[in-house]
Amino acid sequence: xxxxxxxxxxxxxxxxxxxxxxxxxxxxxxxxxxxxxxxxxxxxxxxxxxxxxxxxxxxxxxxxxxxxxxxxxxxxxxxxxxxxxxxxxxxxxxxxxxxxxxxxxxxxxxxxxxxxxxxxxxxxxxxxxxxxxxxxxxxxxxxxxxxxxxxxxxxxxxxxxxxxxxxxxxxxxxxxxxxxxxxxxxxxxxxxxxxxxxxxxxxxxxxxxxxxxxxxxxxxxxxxxxxxxxxxxxxxxxxxxxxxxxxxxxxxxxxxxxxxxxxxxxxxxxxxxxxxxxxxxxxxxxxxxxxxxxxxxxxxxxxxxxxxxxxxxxxxxxxxxxxxxxxxxxxxxxxxxxx
Length: 339
Known about the structure:
With 339 residues, this protein is an alpha/beta fold. 36% of the residues lie in helices and 23% in strands. The chain has helices spanning 46-53, 80-84, 98-101, 108-119, 124-137, 143-146, 156-168, 186-203, 214-220, 238-243, 248-255, 302-306, 322-338; strands at residues 4-15, 18-30, 35-39, 61-70, 73-74, 91-94, 174-178, 206-210, 223-228, 231-237, 311-314, 317-320. The strands form two sheets. The protein has an eight-stranded mixed sheet with strand order 6-7-8-3-9-10-12-11, sandwiched between helices. A four-stranded antiparallel sheet has the order 2-1-4-5, with helices on one face. One of its GO terms (molecular function) is ATP binding. This is ABC-type dipeptide transporter.
């Protein structure tokens, strides 16, 4: 049985003009020690999916349907008091901006000790010793001195290492990392991701990595989800998706990587932009931006405009795309005629 199973997750935001669906029928699973990447453009629903796992969706957002089963416990129906025993303890989260995560008026040591004592009955001395060991694990220089520093006295890379140390304080089963290297320079990004990968492998911690950087996903994760307009459109082994992206959207993301462009030429990009969630196109939400949705003679394909694509198996991946379904159908027809 998977450590985490998400089935048909539906998240909405109640607005005056009506509910807006931020997530639609999101399904995935995560095994113990597995590393899963969630990718997509801004507005695809990546962070909403992460926050939903711990029911951290702020009002007017709410979980409208679906199931989130963690180690046999249904999180969607769990009380706030019960959830507090899981948040930060069995499931930890690393947020985008460490300065927004750390309390600026408390020292690093005070914040780490407070976190430990909220979940365990231990003395302040024991909590400080554990905090010191965790800072050593994330390769903080002079960790005993850093415990008495305030967040503003540390560099961005140092603060992010401390956030990782806090996430590991209570030996969680899952770490959710939401764009953990957004505000850092390229060199520090590589160091932080290498550290996070090493710690997850060493302690057999499952990782959900949310990012728009396909290069990072290819190096760190074993499986990945591609999201668009609140829906998963492709999922499967990372290597298989990176090497052979199936839907036009995933192909567009791959082609937009700088290394895919000819030196000196303009970077490739997906035309148009992500649609507003309260004005989603009919059928496949990507069809206004998709080259496949328009036939050579200039007409739109009825299936792309009228029908929401259902998942089909393609190799070891699951893909929600009419193009892939049509290609599979075209491959099957000659075989059936021969029979």
